[in-house]
Design a protein that fits this description.
Layout lengths: L3 E7 L5 H12 L7 E6 L5 H9 L5 E6 L6 H11 L4 E5 L4 E2 L3 H11 L3 E11 L16 H8 L11 E3 H6 L10 H11 L3 E13 L4 H4 L3 H16 L5 H11 L7 H11 L3
Parallel strand pairs: 1-2, 1-4, 2-3, 6-8
Antiparallel strand pairs: 4-7, 5-8, 6-7
Length: about 270
């Protein structure tokens, strides 16, 4: 079986309950990570430190404490650099892995030795894991992923497994608020990553009441514009596609929160 590391970043505003549920889902995996890297993105409150202290992981556990919050991209970059294994699984600290997530992904990787980047489907929920919301379905094949990437992120980031050396040679994660993952995927693909998504749900992803509030406003628009410019500079989209994406994606960031949620559910979810 392929050895792999699991990478998770935690910051001060995480919920201790959500973190506990996330860590519990890892302990229930049919195939366990060989190493787990937890990057503490700045000092954590006592409640979160207690959850980590009580976490019993049988493999190698590497907890990296950062003196200040550096945001998700740079924090994940530190975790990628610290990983010991060729493959790294990404996990968000408030989501819940299905018990066979890693088993299914490793089986797919073993059957596709050229793969460099892989993920799967998610089932979304609000505060209660039993209350499902519309799921985000992403394409499975490499060619379909390339077509989808011209308009939207073709991976559910909390399901991704990536080749460490390919991520590093592509520039690793970096500071790119809200688009850290999409940014890295595009550079890895330009660098030769062969891609695939598992057709089944691998992770129950927590939406939360604040997701749509975070994805609107001028700060998000600036990052959206930067992402579209990058797609164009990497020649993943042409001038016409750049203008089409900007016209269709940027104005919705000015919508009221409820209207933005409706737009997401209609156009970005299935």
């Amino acid at each position: 079986m392929i050895e792999f590391s699991l990478l998770m970043c935690i910051y001060a505003k995480e919920s201790p309950l959500f973190l506990t549920q996330c860590l519990d889902s890892i302990l229930l995996q049919t195939v366990m990570p060989d190493e787990m890297i937890i990057v503490k993105d700045g000092p954590l409150p006592d409640e979160l430190e207690t959850v980590l202290k009580d976490f019993r992981f049988s493999g190698g556990l590497n907890v990296i404490g950062l003196p200040e919050n550096v945001t998700l991209g740079p924090a994940r970059a530190i975790g990628v650099e610290a990983a010991k294994h060729e493959w790294i699984a990404i996990m968000d600290s408030d989501d819940i892995c299905r018990p066979d997530r890693f088993e299914k992904q490793l089986d797919m990787i073993e059957k596709g030795p050229k793969l460099g980047l892989t993920g799967g489907q998610i089932s979304e929920f609000n505060e209660d894991p039993g209350s499902t919301a519309p799921s985000r379905i992403v394409p499975a094949s490499h060619n379909d992923i390339l077509r989808f990437m011209k308009k939207r992120n073709p991976f559910n980031s909390m399901t991704v497994m990536l080749r460490r050396e390919l991520a590093l040679s592509s520039g690793n994660y970096r500071f790119f608020p809200w688009f850290e993952d999409y940014d890295l995927w595009t550079r890895m693909i330009i660098n030769g990553a062969h891609c695939a998504n598992h057709p089944e749900v691998l992770v129950d992803a927590r939406v939360g009441s604040g997701m749509y509030r975070r994805r609107r406003g001028t700060s998000y628009i600036r990052s959206e514009w930067r992402m579209q410019r990058q797609l164009k500079e990497l020649k993943l989209i042409n001038n016409v596609e750049f203008l089409r994406n900007a016209a269709s994606r940027i104005p919705v960031r000015l919508l009221p929160e409820k209207a933005l949620e409706t737009a997401y559910n209609k156009f970005a979810r299935k």
